[in-house]
Structures are given as C-alpha cells and as structure tokens.
Amino acid sequence: MDYLAAAFQAAFELIVSFDADLWEIVALSLRVSLTAVLIAALIGLPLGAAVALFAFPGRGALIVLLNALMGLPPVVVGLVVYLFLSRAGPLGVLNLLFSPTAMIIAQVILVLPIVAALTRQVIEDLWSEYREQLVSLGAGPARAIPTLLWDGRVTLVTAILAGFGRASAEVGAVMIVGGNIDHVTRVMTTTIALETSKGALPLALGLGILLLLLTLLINAAAEGVRRYARARLA
Question: Which of 176, 208, 180 is nearest to 192 (CA)?
Fold first, then answer.
C-alpha cells in the first residue's frame, strides 16, 4: 500500500509540475485522436445518413457490415495499415509509417464505422418521423440529408463521443503503425503500457489520471452543449 500511495503521489507531482515530457505526450495524444475523430465525422455522418435514406442493392448487407465493424479488432487494423504503409506496401513511397499520420489513419478506420453506424440509426428514425413532411416540401433523400443531420445534431454528438472514446483508448493499432517512438509517436495509451511493463508506475499513473480527466472534461463539455441546444430548441 505504501508503494501504491507513493506512486500516486509521484504521479500527482508530475501533473502539477507540468512535466514537459508528460504534457508533450498528452498534446500528441489529443492531436492524433481529435484529428482522427474529425476526419471520421466528416466522412461518417453523411455516409451513415446516405445508408439510412437511400435504397440500393446490398443495403442490408452494408448495414450489417457497419454494425460488425464497430467491434473491429485494433491489432488487425494496425496490421493492415502497417502492410499498406510499409516500404514493400503499395503506399510505402509516402513514407508515413511510424509517424503521427499513420496513427491518425489507423484511428480513422476504427472510428469511422462507429460514427457511420450510429448516424444511420439516428437519421433513419428522423426520416421515419419527418418523411411525409419533407416529401411534401419537395425534399427527396438527397436534399433531406443536410436537414436531418442538422435536426439530429444534438443526438449525433453521442456518436462522435463514442468515436472519440474508441480513439483515445486505442493501444494496439497505434503501437503497430506508430512504433511508440519517444518525442515522435509516443501517446498516452502506449506510454502507459510501456511504463507499466517497466515498473515505472508514476508516469503511467499520471497519464492514466490525465486520460480519465480529459475524457470526463470532453464528455462534460459535450453534455453541456447538448443541454444548451435542447433548451434553445424547447
């Protein structure tokens, strides 16, 4: 117990002293995860809406696939991205392996199905509710997409937060494609795993505490925005 208490004390001291290495890791983690979530949202929101509104051959199979990919194993994604970006791979000429860009690509692949699948369900429900009204105004599925996305923006925040939770907690894929290189690709989750394996608990605990706090703060901010938006719409 004394060892554990000392580790927590050392972790707290690292946080309040604004340790440069620790905050560098935190900054890179946020940059990678938030960029991945933004890209996934820009693709996943209209994609999920299109799947919800348009009828086409194989739509049912695509819905099943999107739902299944929500549980995509991170190490498999990391391996596939590694093969594509390695020197022998088709994208090896871009020299992106073991860089933050490679980590963002892996996280986008993991987050995109979550955002798209949850968006499809939200838009499908809104379309069932407003279809007759929108059709009477001359708005077909294509024209209805931006309207329904805007109308469901408060609920869709949950889909984006789910994507952020997946990205911020990811270890396997970013470890494979990023390499956990100090001052280059070392993020919070990979550092926690590394420092724990070395028995260096203070830094691991400090990053773990910060990761929890950042997740709570982002979710609290999103909940505040949702409450404010609902109050404005009421």
Answer: 208
Chain-centroid distance, C-alpha 229: 23
**Reduced to 3 states, what is the DSSP secondary structure of residue 149?**
helix
Give the pLDDT confidence of 191-211 residue by residue, as tens digits. 888 878 887 777 777 778 878
The CATH number covering residue 109 comes to: 1.10.3720.10
Q: Where are the alpha helices (DSSP H) in the chain?
A: 2-16, 20-53, 59-69, 74-85, 100-136, 141-151, 153-168, 172-178, 188-198, 201-233
Number of domains in the chain: 1
Phi, psi at residue 33, to the nearest 5°?
A: -70, -45
**Residue 166 · residue 77 · CB < 8 Å:** no
Owning domain of residue 62: 2-233
Angle at the Cα of 225 from the Cα atoms of 116 and 29, rounded to 5 degrees: 60
Q: Could you write out the DSSP letters of every residue in 168-197?
A: HT--HHHHHHHTT-TTTT--HHHHHHHHHH
Phi, psi of 119 (to 5 degrees): -65, -40
Query: pLDDT (tens digit, 9 = 90+) per residue, 119-145?
Result: 999 999 998 888 888 878 777 888 888
